[in-house]
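Hi support team,

I've been running sequence recovery on a batch of backbones for a student project. Most finish fine, but this one hangs at about 90% for roughly twenty minutes before it completes. I'm not sure whether the input is malformed or the queue is just slow. I've pasted the C-alpha cells below so you can try to reproduce it. Let me know if you need the job ID as well.

Thanks,
M.K.
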C-alpha cells in the first residue's frame, strides 16, 4: 500500500490521554494526527471524579473555565463514610484548584479534543488503527488506518497508543505486562437527576462501596462496587435491582434519595479487571493512559494519571529525552498509588484497615500533587 501521509506523531485514541497528548504536542508546533474509532463527543464506560492533580493540569492548560461554563458543578466538600462513621473533608483551595470537578466524559474528552484541534492537531473520528508498519530494524514507522477514507497507510516519527486498557497498539508491538495487580472490584453506576448536592460521597461497608459524584445537568453519578464474584452472582442478571439493593446496603440514606428522585438512566457495569503496568515505549512507539498503566477504578485516579502521563510523555518528546526516562518517571510516580489502590480494590471488610489504606492513598496522592505543583509552577516548565 502506498504511503498516503506523514506526521511527526500519530496518536490512537482521542479521550483524556490521547487528546491531552495531542494538544500538548500540537501547542509546541508538532504535526500531529489524532485518530479515534468512536464518534466525537461520545460517553465511555467510566465514572468521572477528578482528583486534585487532574484539576491542576486542566487548569494549567486553560480548560477549567470551559468545563465550568458548560455547567460542571464545583465540588467543595467530600464525605467519607465507614459504616455509620462520617468524615467530612472540605476541599481546600490550592494552586490551580478552587474546587474539584467531575465533568461527564463526553464533555471532558470533547474539550480536550477541541483544545487539540485549536492547537493545530488534525483529528479523525470513525477511524481505527488496523495494523502497524515496521522497518527492517523492527522500529514502528507507521500505521494502517481504516476510516471514511478507506484504508490508509500513514507514516509517523512516533506512534502513540492512547487506546485504552485493551490497547490494540500494545498488542501489535508486543508490549509486555511488567506488573499485574492481585485484586479487582466491579462497578455499577447510573446518572441520577435531582439529588441534593452534598459534594462527593464515598461510602464503605464490609466488602462493598458506593457513593455519589455531582456532575453536569443537575445529575449525580451514583455508583456501587462489589467483588467480581458477587457481581456475577447477584448483579449481572438484573443490574437495576442489584444496583438499588447494594446501594441500600452501603448507604440507606442515599438509596432512599435515589428512589425518591425517580427513574434514573439504565445502570452501566464494569465487571472488574486487575490493574497492570505495560512497557510504555519501544522503537517508534509509546503508550499513554490506560493503554500502558491501568489501575482499579475504586480510587478514581485513572483520568488524573492519564492527564499526568500525557504531560510526562509530551514533555519527554519535546525535550528529546529518551522515552525510557518517561517510562521510568511514570512507574516511579505511579507505584505507591498502584499498590494501595490494589489493596483497596480487595474491598476490605475491616473498616479500620480500610481507613489506614485511605490515609496511605492520601499520602500517595499528596506526593503526586506536590510533584505536579513543582512542575507546573510558572517558569519551571522545560517544554
Ligand atoms: C467503571 C469505571 C469507573 C471509572 N471511574 C473513574 C473515576 O471516577 N475517575 C477517574 O479518574 N478514572 C476513572 N476510571 C478510569 C478512567 O476511565 C480511565 O483511566 C481513563 O478513561 C483512561 O483514559 P484513556 O484516554 O487512557 O483511555 P480510554 O478512555 O479508554 O480511551 C481510549 C480510546 O481509544 C479508542 N480506541 C481503542 N482502540 C482503538 C483503535 N484500534 N483505533 C482507534 N481508536 C481506538 C477507544 O474508542 C477510546 O475512545 C474508571 C474506569 C472504569 C472502567
Amino acid at each position: 500500500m502506498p504511503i498516503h501521509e506523514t506526521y511527526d506523531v500519530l496518536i490512537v485514541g482521542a479521550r483524556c490521554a490521547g487528546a491531552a497528548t495531542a494538544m500538548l504536542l500540537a501547542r509546541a508546533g508538532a504535526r500531529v494526527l489524532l485518530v479515534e474509532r468512536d464518534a466525537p463527543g461520545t460517553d465511555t464506560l467510566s465514572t468521572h471524579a477528578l482528583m486534585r492533580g487532574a484539576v491542576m493540569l486542566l487548569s494549567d492548560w486553560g480548560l477549567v473555565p470551559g468545563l465550568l461554563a458548560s455547567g460542571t458543578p464545583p465540588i467543595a466538600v467530600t464525605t467519607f463514610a465507614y459504616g455509620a462513621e462520617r468524615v467530612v473533608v472540605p476541599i481546600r483551595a490550592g494552586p490551580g484548584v478552587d474546587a474539584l470537578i467531575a465533568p461527564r466524559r463526553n464533555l471532558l474528552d470533547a474539550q480536550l479534543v477541541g483544545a487539540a484541534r485549536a492547537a493545530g492537531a488534525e483529528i479523525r473520528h470513525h477511524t481505527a488503527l488496523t495494523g502497524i508498519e515496521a522497518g527492517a530494524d523492527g522500529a514502528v514507522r507507521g500505521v494502517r488506518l481504516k476510516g471514511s477514507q478507506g484504508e490508509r497507510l500513514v507514516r509517523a516519527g512516533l506512534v502513540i497508543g492512547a487506546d485504552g486498557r485493551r490497547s490494540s497498539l500494545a498488542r501489535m508491538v508486543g508490549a509486555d505486562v511488567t506488573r499485574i495487580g492481585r485484586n479487582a472490584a466491579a462497578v455499577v453506576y447510573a446518572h441520577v437527576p435531582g439529588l441534593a448536592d452534598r459534594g462527593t460521597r464515598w461510602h464503605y461497608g464490609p466488602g462493598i462501596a458506593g457513593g455519589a459524584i455531582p456532575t453536569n445537568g443537575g445529575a449525580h453519578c451514583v455508583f456501587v462496587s462489589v467483588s467480581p464474584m458477587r457481581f456475577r452472582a447477584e448483579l449481572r442478571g438484573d443490574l437495576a435491582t442489584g444496583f438499588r439493593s447494594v446501594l441500600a446496603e452501603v448507604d440507606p440514606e442515599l438509596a432512599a434519595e435515589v428512589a425518591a428522585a425517580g427513574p434514573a438512566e439504565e445502570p452501566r457495569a464494569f465487571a472488574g479487571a486487575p490493574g497492570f503496568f505495560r512497557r510504555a515505549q519501544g522503537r517508534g512507539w509509546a503508550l499513554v493512559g490506560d493503554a500502558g498503566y491501568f489501575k482499579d477504578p475504586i480510587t478514581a485516579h485513572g483520568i488524573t494519571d492519564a492527564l499526568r502521563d500525557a504531560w510526562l510523555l509530551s514533555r519527554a518528546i519535546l525535550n528529546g529525552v529518551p522515552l525510557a526516562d518517561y517510562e521510568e518517571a511514570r512507574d516511579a510516580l505511579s507505584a505507591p498509588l498502584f499498590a494501595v489502590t490494589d489493596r483497596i480494590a480487595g474491598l476490605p471488610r475491616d473498616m479500620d484497615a480500610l481507613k489506614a489504606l485511605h490515609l496511605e492513598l492520601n499520602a500517595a496522592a499528596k506526593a503526586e500533587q506536590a510533584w505536579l505543583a513543582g512542575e507546573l509552577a510558572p517558569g519551571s516548565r522545560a517544554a
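--
Follow-up from support: It reproduced on our side and the slowdown came from queue contention, not your input. The mean pLDDT is 95. No action needed from you.
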